[in-house]
Amino acid sequence: MPKVGMQPIRRQQLIEATLQAVDQVGMGDASIALIARLAGVSNGIISHYFQDKNGLIAATMRYLMSVLSENVTARRQVLGDDSPRAHLQVIIEGNFDASQVNGPAMKTWLAFWATSMHQPSLHRLQRINDHRLYSNLCCQFRRVLPLDQARSAARGLAALIDGLWLRGALSGDAFDTEQAQRIAYEYMDIQLAKQECKSTSA
Questions:
Q1: How far apart are CA 25 and CA 56, in angstroms?
Q2: Cα separation, 52 vs 11, whole angstroms
Q3: Distances in whole angstroms, Cα of residue 184 to Cα of each of 25, 59, 85, 94, 163
Q4: What CA–CA distance (Å, rounded) separates 172 from 65?
Q5: Rounded to whole angstroms, what are the CA distances from 42 to 62, 103, 134?
Q6: Conformational region of residue 117, where left means phi above 0, alpha means psi within -120 to 50, and beta covers everything else
Q7: Which alpha helices (DSSP H) does 51-102 contain, by range?
Q8: Pick from 114, 119, 109, 121: which is nearest to 168 by CA?
Q9: Sign of dihedral through CA atoms 152, 153, 157, 163?
Q10: Please, what sign has the CA dihedral across residues 179, 84, 95, 112?
Q11: Which helix (H) or strand (E) element contains residue 134?
Q12: Which of 5, 90, 114, 191 sits between 20 and 30 A of 146, alpha carbons compared?
């Protein structure tokens, strides 16, 4: 019988082992046996907590998504500026946080995106993640732009964030966080300047 309080510890061990396994051999070859060995547990523990490999992959992605959300929230809590620009900058920084651009995380995200096209449960997670980013961006752009422009700006910035992340992940080099943020900030400022130009000409 497992010790009281061991479940969250075991679950986290297995999630970290999954990230390590995907980093080493890829999602396809990250077997239950390998993940269990890296976590220092028996194969049956994975079935006990996650049912199967898909359940473990889903839990690993929920973990990465929760870390992303927590990073953005933590940055918001120390903001000294409540402007849309400050909040948008925090969202950009969170998406390029070290927790999202290290080797294991990037390889797991890439594998997740590919697998989600064939696994309904993972596809739902991907849609949730996509909608969260778009919704958060749109909410801030909407504070200064008309609805149609805010939606367009949010779609563009979300696509840019994903594209910069993807190119960095596939480059084979260390992720250039400073460059990615700078490019995203430039696009953000161009979109926000549309309202400033409108206000000036009115």
A1: 16
A2: 13
A3: 32, 29, 12, 12, 10
A4: 23
A5: 23, 26, 40
A6: alpha
A7: 53-77, 84-95, 98-101
A8: 109
A9: positive
A10: negative
A11: helix 120-141
A12: 90
Token pair for 95? 């998406």
Instruction: Tell me if residue 18 falls in helix, strand or coil.
Output: helix
Residue with tokens 């422009």, as numbered in its chain: 149
As given in the structure block, the two tokens for residue 168 are 């960095």
Instruction: Give the CA diameter of the chain.
Output: 72
Q: Show the tokens assigned to 118.
A: 């064939």
- What's the CA dihedral at 179, 183, 186, 187 to 10 degrees? -160
pLDDT in tens, the chain (202 residues): 445 456 778 899 999 999 999 999 999 899 999 999 999 998 898 888 898 888 999 999 999 999 999 999 999 999 989 999 999 999 999 999 999 999 999 999 999 999 999 999 899 999 999 999 999 999 999 999 999 999 999 999 999 999 999 999 999 889 999 999 999 999 999 999 987 555 554 4
**Which long-range contacts does 66-71 make (Cβ < 8 Å, 24+ apart)?**
67/99, 67/100, 68/94, 68/95, 68/97, 68/99, 68/100, 69/94, 69/132, 71/97, 71/99
Place of tokens 């473990």: 56
For the record, the structure tokens of 30 come out as: 């990250």
Q: In the numeric block, which tokens belong to residue 34?
A: 């390998």
Dihedral sign of CA atoms 147, 149, 154, 155 in order: positive
